[in-house]
Amino acid sequence: MPVLLIRNDGLVKSVQFKKHKYVGDPINAVKIFNEKEVDEIIILDIDASAKKEAPNFKLVEKICGESFMPLAYGGGVKTLEDAQKLLYNGAEKIVLNTSLLEQPKVIESIAKQFGNQSVVASIDYRTSLFGKPKVYGFNGSKKTKWTALELAKKAADYGAGEIMLNAIDRDGTYKGYDLETLKTVSSSVDVPVIACGGASGLEDFEEAIKHGAGAVAAGSMFVFQRPHQAVLISYPNSVELNKLNEKL
Q: What b/e string do you get for 53-87 counting C-beta neighbours within 10 Å, with b at 16 or more?
């Protein structure tokens, strides 16, 4: 599934959570993904929590109004009321990252009222020199005490219905997913794990699913045309996806 990043109401893409490049208007991007019959999409406002701002409810409502596919939104969600407003305005799921670190009980509140399937716990991490995947908060700027596995277990205990593992070191690099961490986490929690960070093609999707991913997400692969990183939204067609499914 495509992961689209919003900054200042525009769509951007990063490399290792830095070097953000403007890639267009989020509503236009959603319209294009509609035409390509994408199953699900994730929209993340990467500045809201860092700036201690609430979600841009009007923008999210506009995006949801144009989306024909289930949409998961994350960014600035701190309370049950925030989640309630977003879900009533058309979001299918709420993605929580900073709140998972600072006030994890909000996961429990949302899950109780709207169901576990409505909550995605997003975990950003870097692999340390000693090989441990350490979690970073605030858009990758602040190291925490948690490992990815520890936080994933905590998120599942609080009621998250899915866990998105985002490898910061691989973001925008096309190096493939972090299969080792993916396998470790997915085999240790009872909820689906979404692999994110590093995908360059369908072969990466295949490897991620074989290593335990319940779903796969990507950003650069869907918004850039290599080798020159020209902005061009793309998505595998049904023939390609059927061939992939046959291998799994």
A: ebbbeebbbbbbebbebbbbbbbbbbebebbebbb
- pLDDT of amino acid 50: 83
Q: What is the pLDDT of residue 129?
A: 85
Q: Are 101 and 78 in contact (CB under 8 A)?
A: no
* pTM for the predicted model, two decimal places: 0.95
Measured on CA atoms in the order 102, 144, 217, 168, is the torsion positive or negative?
positive
Active-site option among 47, 124, 178, 204: 124
Spatial CA neighbour of 210 closest among 180, 235, 189: 180
Q: What angle (nearest 5°) sits at the alpha carbon of residue 73, between those of residues 245 and 76?
A: 145
Structure tokens at 206: 């295949």
Q: What is the pLDDT of residue 226?
A: 84
**Predicted local distance difference test score (pLDDT) of residue 165:** 98
Residue ranges, the chain, pLDDT below 50: none
pLDDT for residue 51: 87
133 within 8 A of 125, measured Cβ to Cβ? yes
For the CA atoms of 26, 80, 14, 196, the dihedral, rounded to the nearest 10 degrees, stands at: -110
**82 counts as catalytic:** no
Quote the pLDDT of residue 36.
95
| Beta partners for residue 48, in sequence order | none
Among 139, 96, 149, 126, residue whose Cα is nearest residue 198: 126
pLDDT score for 119 = 98
Q: How far is CA 223 from the centre of its chain?
A: 15
